[in-house]
Amino acid sequence: MENTTQQLHSSSNRKPKTLQVSLLAVALVLLLFLASPVSSCNEEEKTSLLGFLDGLSQASALNTSWKNDTNCCLWEGVTCNEDGAVMDISLASMGLEGHISPSLGNLTGLLRLNLSGNLLSGELPPELLLSSCIVVLDVSFNKLNGEFHELPSTQELAIKVINISSNFFTGYFPSDTLYGMKNLASLNMSNNSFTGKFPSTVCVDKPFFVVLDLSYNQFHGGIPPELGNCPVLRVLKAGQNQFSGTLPFILDLAGNWLNGEIPDSIGQLKMLEELHLDNNNMSGELPSSLSNCSNLTTFILKGNNFHGKLTNVNFSTLPNLKFLDFRSNKFSGTHSSRKHLLLQQPY
């Protein structure tokens, strides 16, 4: 009986010890996890950031955060990746004054730079436009000025979004630089003082180009017909400039994801010769204003969801119309026979 009691007593003593060991192990794991160091930027990254700081006024809001003896991955507006490389600088609307240092172009891991809504002045460093890593560049709503110079690039640029709107830039926009931006998706250069003809290279080899805003500048000359070569362009704003001449004769937007109706304003394109809207997802009835497009020779709507009566358009006012393709839509009614006319036949 005594032996049994000793065994039970011994067993009861072992359980707390086992529990203590388990709790100690958990505590050690948590301690190691909490003690894991935050990504620390290297000296080259810090030097580049401090170079930017040196270009700002002494009263900068960053002076209290950006200290030389601290980890720059913890500085205000700075985000680093797990390797300690600066990947994001977001300093919008902080009242920053001074100029933008080209040292930011030395940040080889920088993906996004947002300096919008400040009081920055001077020129935009070309190192930022020619960066091989920056994807989004936003310096809108500042006091930047100066001209852009031709900056031919020997490598494909990563940049996708450029917003330089609401500044004081002047001169021409460099066509060679624009040509090298194969990944460009959005370019907003509105509310500046750019002059000259807009580069015809804007749509060359740009399969992702969606938004172009040229409004409120001093561009002149004709609108480049090459704009019709932008395969996925969704937004084109060019108001309040000095463009002259006529709109491009051919408007080809076939094979996109366009939806909605054909606007009544289409009738204002009196010099339009070809309109290709086939293989989209457009709908609605044909606007009667199409009757005003008296120079139209080719009108292709195949592969959409248009409906309504074809008699909405007075085709007798379109004497030059030679090819009309309405297949795979939902039109009702008939149309007088015409050479090369394709209505509701299947593919």
From TrEMBL:
Keyword Protein biosynthesis: no
Annotated Gene Ontology cellular component terms: plasma membrane
Matching InterPro entries: At_inactive_RLKs, Leu-rich_rpt, LRR_dom_sf, LRR_N_plant-typ
One Pfam entry name: LRR_1
Alphabetized SUPFAM superfamilies for the sequence: RNI-like (SSF52047)
Signal peptide: 1-40
Membrane-protein topology: Single-pass type I membrane protein
Superkingdom assignment: Eukaryota
Primary subcellular site in the record, as a coarse category: membrane
All copies of domain Leucine-rich repeat-containing N-terminal plant-type, residue ranges: 43-81
Record-given protein name: Leucine-rich repeat-containing N-terminal plant-type domain-containing protein
